[in-house]
Amino acid sequence: MDNRKFTEQELIRREKYKTLVERGRDPFLLTQFERNATLTELKTTFAKFSKEELANVEPKQLLKTAGRIKLFREAGKKAAFVNIQDQDADIQLYVRMDELGEDNFNAFRDLDLGDIIGVEGHMMKTDHGELSIRVCQYTLLSKALKPLPDKHAGIQDIEEKYRRRYVDLIMNPEVKKTFQKRSKIVRALQKFLDDQGYMEVETPILQSVKGGAAAKPFKSYFNALDHEFTLRIATELPLKRLIVGGFEGVYEIGRLFRNEGMSARHNPEFTTLELYVAYKGLDFLMNINEKILKACNDAVNDSSIIHYGGYEIDLGKSFARVHMVDAIKNVTGVDFWKEMTFDEALAIAKKHHVKVEKHHFGVGHIINLFFEEFVEKTIIQPTFIYGHPVEVSPLSKSNKDNPRFTDRFELFIIGREYANAYCELNNPIEQYSRFEEQLQEIEFGNDEAGEMDIDFIEALEYGLPPTAGFGLGIDRMVMLLTNSESIKDVLLFPQMKPREGNN
Questions:
Q1: Which of 292, 270, 40, 105 is nearest to 185 (CA)?
Q2: What is the four-CA torsion angle of 431, 433, 439, 444, rounded to 10 degrees?
Q3: Is 255 helix (H, G, I), strand (E, B) or coil?
Q4: What is the mean pLDDT of the chain?
Q5: Which single residue of 43, 251, 421, 444 could bond 275 by disulfide (Cβ 3.0 to 4.6 Å)?
Q6: What is the sign, positive or negative, of the torsion defined by CA atoms of 70, 76, 77, 80?
Q7: Is residue 324 within 8 Å of 391, Cβ to Cβ?
Q8: Best CATH choice for the domain 8-148 from the list 3.30.300.20, 2.40.440.10, 3.40.50.720, 2.40.50.140
Q9: Can 8-148 and 171-319+381-489 be said to share one CATH topology?
C-alpha cells in the first residue's frame, strides 16, 4: 500500500491509469516498440522538401517513431498538434479525429505531458512550413504519473535539479548535450591513448592500504577477509606495479573516492585518468598532457579558443612551464631558492600571514602553502608548474640537480589544478623512508597522509624502470571544455544530502 501524499495532478493521472487498466490498455504491459526512424533521422531526411514535394517523396510504408510528449495544443475539437521529444531531437505531430477514429482520438486527447508514445504516420509540412508527422495511429508506451515542471519555470530548486537528474534531462536539452559531450571527451581520450599503444586496465576499488595521494578515505569492512578496507583515493600504486610486471604503458579511467568537503569544484566521488609509461620523463608528460587536452577539446569544440568563467583560454598555444619557486618569487618577491631552516621559513610565513601547522611541517610545506595562497589564483592560461618540494611529493623522484625539489608538475588553468604528474620514485630504499615520514605525519594528526605499503616497496625491489606518470581530473576537464560552472553540472548523479523522509 502506497501511503505517500499525492498532489491533485498526481491523483488525476493515477485515475487515468486505472481507467486504462480497466479498458485493457495498460501501457506498462508493453515490452517493446520497434521504430524505423529516430526524430533526427526524420528531420535529416525530410526537412529539405517543400510541403508539395513531401507528397511525392513519402515512402509507401508508415514511418514509426516514438518520444515523450512535451507540448499539447488542440486545434478545435477534431485536431491537435503535439510535440514529442526523443534523445536528440523533437518534432511536431498532427493528429486528426478523422484519421484516428473518434474513440482513439478522444483517448489521445486524454494523454498528459510527459507520457511516452509511439506513433505511425507520414511526413508533412504545415502551412507555416513546420515539418510534422501526420499520425495514422498511436500507442501509449508509458504513462507519466508525475507531471513535468512548467516548461518556462523549469526546476526552481537547484538542489532538485541535481537530485532528480532524470527530470533535468527531460526539461533541458542543453544539459543532455553536456553529458553527450562528456562521453565524446572520454572516447577521444581513450582513442588518443590507444593510438599511442598504451593499454587500458582496471585495478581494485577496495584497497587494504591507503596510498597514491594525500586524501582522507572512505572506510569499509570486508567481512570475508575480516579486514578493514578503504575505497581507493588513487589508482597510482596498482598501476605502477603493472609497470614493474613488464607492461610499458598502462592507463585507467576510473572512479576515485575522497571523504572530504563538497563544493563547486569538488565531489567526493570523481573520475580521473592515470597514465604510466616506462622510460619516459617530465618533458614527455608535459607534451602528452598538452596533446590530450587539445584532442579532447577538438572532439567537442570547433575552436581552440574556449570561454570559461569570463576568461578566454587559448588551447592552441604551447602551455607555459614555470618552476614553483620562480612562480612564488614573481608574485610575492620571496625567494625560496635560498636554503633555509624551518624557523627561517616560518618567520617568512608569519610576515606574509601564512598559517603553518608547525608540528608536522617542513620548509617544503611552507613553500607549497605560499604557492597555494598567492600564486594559484593568478594563473589564467594553461601553465605547467613544476619542481614541487620533496615534502609534499612522497611518490615523486627527487631532482638530481636540487634534491630539495622533485621532478613533478601540476597543470593549472584559471586558478584550478587539472593534472598532477611525476617522474616516479623507483628507489625502494628512499620510498620506504618517504612512507615512514608519512607515518609520522599520521601520528601528528594528518589524516590525509599515506600509509606504509610494504607490498609496493617489495614491488620496487624487483625493479621499476624510469617511469613517467600523471593523473588528470576528467570532471574538471569536462567543466572547462563545456563551460560548466559546477562539477555537479558534469556529473550525472552528484552526491547530494538525502531528502528528509527519503528512506
A1: 292
A2: -130
A3: strand
A4: 93
A5: 251
A6: negative
A7: no
A8: 2.40.50.140
A9: no
Q: How many CA atoms lie within 13 A of 207 on its CB side?
A: 25
- The answer to whether 490 touches 478, Cβ cutoff 8 Å, is yes
pTM (global) more than 0.85: yes
**What one-character DSSP code corresponds to residue 265?**
S
- Tell me the CATH number for domain 171-319+381-489: 3.30.930.10
417 among the known binding-site residues?
Answer: yes
Round to whole Å and give the CA distance between 357 and 345: 13
Q: What angle do CA 68, 70, 76 make, to 5 degrees?
A: 115
443 is in an annotated binding site: no
pLDDT tens string 423-479: 999 999 999 998 888 888 777 666 667 678 999 999 999 999 999 999 999 999 999
pLDDT class of 38 with cuts at 50, 70, 90: very high
DSSP count for the chain of H helices, then E strands: 16, 18
- Distance of alpha carbon 329 from the chain centroid: 35
Query: Mutual orientation of helices 474-482 and 173-195 as an angle, nearest 10°?
Result: 120
Instruction: Report the alpha-carbon distance of residue 357 to residue 303 in Å, rounded.
Output: 45
Cell of 81: 498538434
Is pLDDT at 87 greater than 80 in this prediction?
A: yes
Residue tagged 501501457 (cell numbers): 27
Closest residue by Cα to residue 382 from 429, 315, 333: 315
One-letter amino acid of 104: N
SS3 category, 196: coil
Instruction: Tell me the chain's radius of gyration from C-alpha atoms.
Output: 29
Domain boundaries, the chain: 8-148, 171-319+381-489
| CA proximity to 434, closest of 211, 215, 262, 243 | 211
DSSP codes joined into one string, 437-460: HHHHHHHTT-TTSPPP-HHHHHHH
pLDDT tens digits, one per residue of 250-290: 999 999 999 988 888 889 999 999 999 999 999 999 999 99
Q: At 106, list the grid cell.
A: 478522444
Query: Reduced to 3 states, what is the DSSP secondary structure of residue 247?
Result: coil
